[in-house]
Write a structure and sequence with these properties.
613 residues, alpha+beta, Lipocalin, 9-stranded antiparallel beta sheet, 33 strands
């Protein structure tokens, strides 16, 4: 199981003075006002909040915070669900989130500051600052190429979160590995490239990245709730939401405040924590052409450089166009900025929407011409509900007068419509819905997207319009009625019977009985160790190459446990003639069996506290 790595402290004085008694900055930067005073209908905002509430109610998200600011006035600020479901902690206003790739916007702004000062140029070669780039393959890569994700660098080179001792060593390793394709030839979203940009900022400024961003961006903007977690005794840490990953019915908490920081040091691509209200201060600067009060923090030229549409934005690790649910808009990328322009935009046209997202479920959108900001923060990694709300934002706030005509459903589609029950990957008794969307038959996957389908091929497979790697077909009974569908993905076939899901309560496990499984197991091929432990009241497996413990579903009738994040992976515990657990066997989706031999002594006193990591 290989980890996929995704996706700034204030000064001591500022931290002590501004965080000693809770949030230092809340709604004061954007005072609350009645929506109608700002030209927004309360009814529309209530409907948008209901969309977010239903996403949490349907378990598409564990918790969320929704903030709408119009004309620099807060017209909606609501919270939903939990920041820690296991501990029963409700999501409160100004809960702090790991904003992941939204950090890139600060790294980009830091580089733009250095460009404004004449200390850095877009056409500089990265090799001038990072020796690892002084190779035949990487020597010609420019600052502009890494800022626009056109350097040909991979998404990530990390195999462990603490693989490198500092940012400079990480950047050297990126250069030594070199580009995966010709620099400048295409857009390829790259955490590695942004980490390199962060290292360049350190070299040019003579400061650590977090120190430079604290001094030159966060403090001038008054962003006291945006910081890099290096000190777990910082009082703001208590307000950080637990990080969940998985999906509907299978959310597992992977990290929570306490213990060691999530990141070993500040990276360019991620590592910042923030709140919607605090991040909105950063967004306002871009709408104000780089001004903060009476000060010109970034030049107007730097703002223009950042928000210049350079590339059509594609999805992670793919040439497939990055999806958006804003009607009539397409996604583009500037220099560390995500942009939305009309599908038929002419060259040189300015973006309609600017913003950025983070892979743990945070998103911010700005309509500069409307002086409108919408921020939607969650910590439910794996859900695409944050993306799907774009359609509702457009319908309720941007184009409330647009007439939506309901198209008549073609007769040939009608037999397929309805719900189908999924029990694969992280889905457990979850209803998928077949409907008509954009005039096509489509599959609505809860917590993800509505996937439009091409008409069937000669084999009866309806391929996804978004990707030709996934398809569905439909099963029929003796009377010709549709009885189910099959989904084809990555060489696997999943069967979904037609009908309604019966969500049964998850059976409880007796932790005292399963403690015999807790312990250390050997991966003989590599010599590494795997831990079986108790995590959040569940049996879980922790492998060296995955940051978070992976919770298990209780065993089925045949005694097989399964991963909550992918129940196609089964686990069987093997015993000797004395009933002692001597190994476990991981049964992969293709049937491959991987035996992990137990190498520790069974500790009769082991329990949740002793085994949890």
């Amino acid at each position: 199981m290989k980890r996929h790595t995704f996706s700034l402290c204030l000064t001591l004085f500022t931290t002590l003075i501004l965080t000693a008694s809770g949030p230092a900055y809340s709604d004061s930067a954007f005072p609350v006002d009645a929506p109608e005073n700002q030209g927004v209908a309360t009814k529309a905002l209530d409907a948008l909040a209901e969309v977010a509430r239903l996403q949490v109610e349907k378990d598409h998200l564990v918790g969320a915070e929704l903030l709408v600011i119009k004309n620099r006035r807060t017209v909606l600020h609501e919270t939903f669900g939990y920041r820690d479901r296991e501990d029963g902690l409700a999501w409160e206003e100004n809960t702090i989130c790991n904003i992941r790739s939204m950090t890139k916007t600060f790294t980009g702004a830091a580089a733009q500051l250095l460009i404004d000062r004449g200390e850095l140029k877009l056409d500089d070669r990265v090799a001038q600052y990072i020796p690892g780039f002084d190779t035949d393959e990487a020597r010609e890569i420019t600052i502009d190429q890494i800022m626009s994700h056109r350097a040909g660098l991979p998404l990530s080179i990390l195999t462990a979160i603490d693989e490198y001792p500092d940012l400079h060593m990480m950047a050297n390793a990126v250069g030594e590995r070199g580009p995966e394709f010709e620099p400048g030839s295409r857009f390829w979203y790259s955490d590695s490239g942004t980490d390199v940009l962060g290292a360049v900022v350190e070299v040019v400024s003579g400061q650590l990245l977090n120190e430079f961003i604290e001094t030159n961006l966060l403090t001038p903007l008054g962003m006291a709730d945006t910081f890099y977690v290096s000190d777990m005794t910082d009082p703001r840490v208590e307000r950080i939401a637990g990080l969940y990953f998985g999906g509907v019915g299978a959310w597992s908490k992977g990290w929570e405040p306490g213990g060691e920081p999530f990141y070993p040091f500040a990276w360019g691509s991620q590592t910042l924590y923030s709140t919607p209200m605090d991040y909105a201060k950063f967004l306002a600067m871009w709408m104000d052409q780089g001004r903060v009060g009476e000060d010109q923090l970034l030049s107007r030229e730097a703002v223009a450089r950042t928000l210049e549409p350079i590339s059509e934005m594609t999805s992670l690790g793919s040439d497939m166009r990055s999806p958006t649910f804003f009607p009539d808009l397409e996604t583009y990328y500037g220099r560390m900025s995500q942009l939305w322009l009309p599908a038929d935009a002419a060259e040189g046209e300015t973006p309609v929407v600017i913003g950025h997202g983070g892979s743990d479920g945070t998103m911010a959108w700005v309509w500069p011409e409307l002086d409108l900001m919408v921020l939607y923060f969650t910590q439910s990694r794996g859900s695409l509900s944050v993306l799907r709300i774009e359609e509702d934002i457009d319908r309720l706030l941007i184009h409330p007068d647009r007439v939506v005509r309901t198209a008549e459903v073609p007769d040939e589609y009608k037999p397929y419509l309805g719900t189908y029950v999924a029990n694969f990957a992280s889905f457990r008794d979850v209803e998928f819905t077949v409907l008509v969307h954009n005039g096509r038959l489509a599959l609505d996957v809860p917590g993800q997207l509505v996937f439009d389908l091409h008409n069937p091929d000669d084999e009866g497979k309806w391929y996804f319009v978004m990707t030709d790697q996934v398809a569905v077909s439909f099963d029929t009974g003796e009377g010709g009625d549709v009885t189910g569908l099959k989904m084809y993905e990555a060489g696997q076939t999943f069967e979904l019977p037609k009908g309604k899901a019966e969500r049964k309560p998850e059976p409880m496990i007796d932790l005292a009985q399963v403690k015999e499984y807790v312990g250390t197991y050997l991966v003989e091929e590599t010599g590494e160790h795997v831990q079986m432990l108790i995590h959040d009241g569940r049996l879980a497996v922790k492998t060296p190459d995955v940051m978070m413990p992976l919770d298990l579903y209780p065993p089925d009738e045949s005694g097989l446990w399964s991963l909550r994040v992918n129940q196609s992976v089964k686990i069987r515990f093997d015993e000797d003639e004395n009933g002692q657990v001597v190994s476990f066997t991981a049964i992969m989706p293709d049937g491959t069996e991987l035996v992990r031999t137990r190498v520790d002594e069974v500790d009769e006193s082991s329990g949740e506290n002793a085994s949890d990591e």
